[in-house]
Amino acid sequence: MVRMVRNILGMVRMVRNIPDDILGMVRNKINSPRDLVRMTAAYKLWRDASSQLPETPAVPALILSPGGCSSKKHMCGPNGSWVMHVPSKAATKRFVGSHQGGWIAAIDDRELVIVNLFTGAEKIIFSQDPSSSNGCTIAALRNNGDSISVCRIDCPEGGWSSRRWRGEVIWDIAFYNGELYCLTRLPEKLVRFEIGATDEYGAPVITATQQLDIQNRRFNFYNPIEYDAYIVELHGKLLIAVRSRWLPSRECFFRVFELVDANDGKGYKYKWSQVTSFGDYALFLGWSKAIHVPVGGRGGIKANHIYYCMPTMEDKLPDDSVYSVTSRNGDQIYCREEESINDGVGRTVYYMVRCYNSPM
Q1: How far from the centroid of its chain's Cα atoms is residue 201's Cα?
Q2: What is the end-to-end Cα distance of the chain in Å, rounded?
Q3: CA of 231: how far to CAs of 181, 291, 319, in Å?
Q4: What is the pLDDT of residue 8?
Q5: How high is the pLDDT of residue 35?
Q6: How many Å apart are CA 287 and CA 306, to the nearest integer?
Q7: Nearest of 17, 26, 74 to residue 48 by alpha carbon
Q8: DSSP for residue 23
Q9: Cβ neighbours for 169, distance < 8 A, ≥ 6 positions apart
């Protein structure tokens, strides 16, 4: 067994140290743009060497059956073909436009989506205002929560850099104090991603990950179907909003927890402490992002309140609903303020009755 491990480690070292000229020959033999991305993501030495090699022209490709219902599309280039797995948001739509770098526009009778075939971006967040002079970093959660990609708006030549996550499924990502964090599904690990610049364009790359030492919370009524979670910043502090069935006699709802120092002698550096006061702010929890909003003069927003969406199987509109909306596509939502659970936090829920597309 020891000899086998030594042999494997020796092969890994040999592969990582392929001479640049041979690496260039290998790269020129690759037809699939996605395989080129995977090649540069395999080892840092390969990525650094590839950035120094002469840029090869992008190979045009034809997509067979761009209007089909399969998530697998055949890409045909001058020297061969390969299969591309299309992100689920575009799999059943018709491709109607494209741009270099793997971006495509796809449409059906309900919506238009723009996705990247190579990164498979499913959720994208911004470190700051995209027009900021300091440069905005974009992070994308992709491949059903097992990979994160980053790039900068002000260095388009740098492209995307990806980091595969081999732990629990990533449930949410957010920038906090200029740093990128992710929250995994139970047991709710909070991980900080260190981002550095590695090339002449200043393109970002994830250089390391650090899991914060946090004491796990207790779940008495956990149901994976009902569970949901978001990272949110409030008053300069990092919080998470978690949906679960907290009480046996109530439907699932959100509670908010703040990351605080443990100081309890149990060996953990941090713990989650429940928050029941947001001050003059309300929290809005949506698929694309969780944000805090000040209540002063903002059309009926209530302080110390959480606004969020939740699916329901009930077709009958309740008498206590605030309002209901039905779109041309048949999506229906009604809004209702939930009964208090005497924890000081109000909750208004947008119930999705028949929604074919997730609200953003």
Answers
A1: 25
A2: 52
A3: 8, 9, 33
A4: 40
A5: 63
A6: 14
A7: 17
A8: H
A9: 144, 145, 146, 184, 185
C-beta of residue 287 within 8 angstroms of C-beta of residue 359: yes
* Strands 103-107 vs 94-99: parallel, antiparallel or unpaired: antiparallel
Which residue in the block uniquely carries the two structure tokens 């809004």? 335
Cross-strand bridge partners of residue 31: none
What is the enclosing helix (H) or strand (E) of 42? helix 33-42
Cα separation, 221 vs 311, in Å, equals 19
CA–CA separation, 138 and 118 (whole Å): 16
Measured CA angle at 17 (ends 15, 19), to 5 deg: 110
In the prediction, which pLDDT does 181 show?
96
Of the candidates 120, 183, 172, the one whose C-alpha atom is nearest the C-alpha of residue 288 is 172
Q: Which one of 54-63, 123-132, 264-273 scores highest in mean pLDDT?
A: 264-273
pLDDT of residue 124: 73
- Residue-wise pLDDT for 82-121, tens only, equals 677 777 777 778 776 666 567 777 777 776 676 777 666 6
The one-character DSSP state at 322 is S
β-pair type (80-85, 94-99): unpaired
Residue type, 211: Q
Token pair of 250 as six digits: 């109530």
Q: Which residue has the tokens 């992002």?
A: 289
How far apart (Å, rounded) are the C-alpha atoms in residues 168 and 166? 7
Q: Reduced to 3 states, what is the DSSP secondary structure of residue 354?
A: strand
